[in-house]
Amino acid sequence: MSRKVGLSNSGVLSAGTREHFRRSRRASTRTTATQFDFLYAFFQAAYHLADWLKNSGAAPRGDVETFVNSTTALASCRDICNGSKHLRLDKHQRSKSVGLMREYIPPSQGRTAGTRARLFAFQRQDGSVDYADIEQLMSDCVRTWHAYCETLA
């Protein structure tokens, strides 16, 4: 059973910041096998909540950056966001490269044959590769931002 996560209407978070959070949460529910753009849109919206928090004055710039860098979900979110927009990730990123892995679905499983987005693969700076389940990572990003924003309220 999923619980809908929302932000309180405190004076600290601007209406724009709360709407940006809601947009990220909505984007997390739009993934289907043919909508890869929505995956990237979610991670872009989710990561750019950091900009809203910093630029609105809701949180100090350094605090937001430290928080993003200290959480696996948001650091991965940042790398997906930037990796989907830029040819190369710069030296400040956790990942050297990020790739979307598709799962082949044969027709014998009772579902329509094809592929679906399942995992992100992160090649780290040291050459190692980590994998993240897309749905779990999206959920972790929303939950992590929610917890952080509630500390600002």
What portion of the residues fall into strands of 2 or more residues? 15-25%
The number of helical segments is 6
The quaternary structure here is single chain
Which shape, going by the Cα principal axes? globular
Instruction: Report the mean per-residue pLDDT as an integer.
Output: 76
Cα-atom Rg, whole angstroms? 16 Å
Structure class = alpha+beta
Largest sheet: 3 strands, antiparallel
Helical content class:
40-55%
Largest beta sheet: strand ordering = 1-2-3
Please tally the β strands and state the result: 3
* Low-pLDDT windows of residues: none
End-to-end CA span: 26 Å
Question: Which labels suit this protein?
Answer:
153 residues; alpha+beta; globular; 3-stranded antiparallel sheet; 6 helices
Describe the structure.
This protein is an alpha+beta fold and 153 residues long. It has 6 helices and 3 strands. Strands 1-2-3 form a 3-stranded antiparallel β-sheet. The radius of gyration is 16 Å and the shape is globular.
Summarize it.
With 153 residues, the protein is α+β, with helices and mostly antiparallel strands.
Which secondary structure elements does this structure contain, and how are they paired or packed?
Layout: H1 15-27, H2 36-47, H3 49-56, H4 61-70, H5 72-85, E1 95-105, E2 114-124, E3 129-133, H6 134-152
Antiparallel strand pairs: 1-2, 2-3
Helix pairs in contact: 1-2, 1-3, 2-5, 2-6, 3-4, 4-5, 5-6
